[in-house]
Each structure stands twice: as C-alpha cells, then as structure tokens.
Amino acid sequence: MAGSRLFFAQSCPTYILSRQVLVFSQGCIVYLILTLRTYALYGRSKWLLVSLVFIILTFMVGAAAETFGRYSSTVTNLPRGGCYQTYTTETTVRLAVAWEALSVYEFLIFVLTVSRIFQIRRLLRLSLTSSRKNLVAVMFQDGALYFGAMTLFNIPNILTYYYGSGVTRGSLSTFTSCMSVTLISRLMLNLHESIDAGILSAPTWDDDDSLPVLTTRFDVQSTNSSHYW
To answer: Which of 7, 123, 157, 159 is most buried by a 10 A CB count?
Structure first.
C-alpha cells in the first residue's frame, strides 16, 4: 500500500504535465486548421497569412507562458489512486487569460470569415439554413456553428477559473479542448464532403459565385488500376 501511494505521488506531476501538453497541442492544431481555412477563403492572401501567423504565435507564446510557467499549485493524491491539481487565485487568473486569448482568436477568425463571405454573397444571402450546395455556404454555416458552440463551451470553462472552488477550477478545460478538436474535425469532414472526394489537389470553381477555391479530386479509375497492378 505504501509503495502504491509513493508511485502515485511520483507520477501525479508527470500526469498533470502530460495533460497540459496534450491540451496545448490540441489547441495549436485546431487554430492552425482555422488559420488555413481562412487563408484559403481569402484566395491564399500572403499578407493575411503572415498577419494571422504573427497573431497566433503571439497568443500561443503567451498561452504557453501562462500554462507552463512557474506558478503556485498543489497536487493532491486521491486515496484510491489518481490525482488532481488545485491552484491559487493568482494562478487561476493567469490560466484563464490563456483561454481568453484563444477565444479572441476564434472571434477574429469568425469575423474574417463573415467579412469575406459578405464580400462574395452579400448580406441578404447569408443564412444558416440556406442550401449547402456550394463551398461558400458550407464554410459560412460551419464557421458560424463552430464559433457559437465554442463560445458556449469556453464561457463556462473560463468562469470556473474565476468563480470555481479549488477542485473545480479548470475542470472543464479538458472537455472544452476535446470538443474543439471534435468540432474542427467535423468541419473538415463537411468541407471534404461538399466537394469531390480525393487526395490530389486541383483548382476548381464554386458553382454559384465563380469563386476560385483550392479543393481535391480523386481519379477512381487510375487508383483502381494501380491497385490491381
């Protein structure tokens, strides 16, 4: 029994650090995908890409400093195994700021998406319930739904850092991160479903708006031939 307690006491800090690295890595992947979607929507604008990369690097460096920096916390071992970490009030505010920075970036991406689609389709044609027959409609609707859903998840998560008790502070961060990954995966699947399936990149045109976009096409015949070859 004593050996088991010693094992959990030694492994808890490693577990906590691994969890933080995982959550941070998931956030990096999600915001990289959001950046690439916006970059493609703006016709591969180099100026926009440089601006977004600068902003996201600034936010990520700040978030990393707040997440992995030296701060006061207590790791508690549970009687039957497992552990949880509690933070001081000052530390929870720093961690909340990291999530707030990521929320600001999501809002920026949403604004850029709506602005670009407004230029293409005009305000009267923007609708969350309109047909999803073209790429522009899919990107607008999915982008709006992603931002709305993540706002609903982020607000309670951030509030736990400010108003939660010692145990509940940051308790929703893992759930929020997992939902972000799940939703961005759904966005990419919807995007792939709305165009010709495949892995070979080729330029195509949106049916309604003559908007050049980068999509993928798949040569089924050549693939079958190579398979049997």
So the answer is: 157
Give the chain's count of helices (H) and strands (E).
6, 4
CB atoms within 10 A of CB 134: 19
Nearest to 100 by CA among 147, 155, 51, 61: 155
Which residues is 77 bridged to in the sheet?
Answer: 83
pLDDT-derived band at 138, boundaries 50, 70, 90: confident
Tokens coding 53: 């990369």
pLDDT given for residue 52 in this prediction: 95
The strand ranges marked E within 134-208 are 200-205
How far is the C-alpha of 136 from the C-alpha of 208, rounded, in Å? 9
Q: How big is the chain by its Cα radius of gyration, in Å?
A: 22
Q: How many CB atoms lie within 10 A of CB 85?
A: 19
Q: Does residue 95 surpass a pLDDT of 60? A: yes
Shortest CA distance to 23 belongs to which of 80, 64, 54? Answer: 64
Cβ–Cβ < 8 Å for 161, 95: yes
Quick one: how far is CA 34 from the chain centroid?
7
pLDDT attached to residue 221: 40
Give the DSSP letter string of 1-22.
-HHHHHHHHHHHHHHHHHHHHH
Which pLDDT belongs to residue 190? 86
State the pLDDT confidence band at 215, using cuts at 50, 70 and 90: very low
